[in-house]
Amino acid sequence: MSGKGDLAKLDVGVLTADQQEKLRQFKIKTRINNEKYLRSHPEVEVLIGDFLRDVLLKRPADIQDFAADHFTNPDLHVLIGSKMEENME
């Protein structure tokens, strides 16, 4: 898997001015679409926040196993639903 550092090695200077503008517009459109999606699905914030809270409280040695267990919990939808209701109060 490529590391984040690999992105820094990309040379956008090899793109034409038109390609750079299209890339810029694509990035803007993607950010807007992502923001719209996240605003229409507040449960995503609750899911991620709940997971991070558990990680920081429990500090598991094997984060991948912990994440797998967390997100495959058959009662996860109930837990998230109740937290969503708490947030609305």
UniProtKB/TrEMBL annotation:
Domain of life (superkingdom): Eukaryota
InterPro entries: RIIAD1
Protein name, entry field: RIIa domain-containing protein 1
UniProt lineage: Eukaryota, Metazoa, Chordata, Craniata, Vertebrata
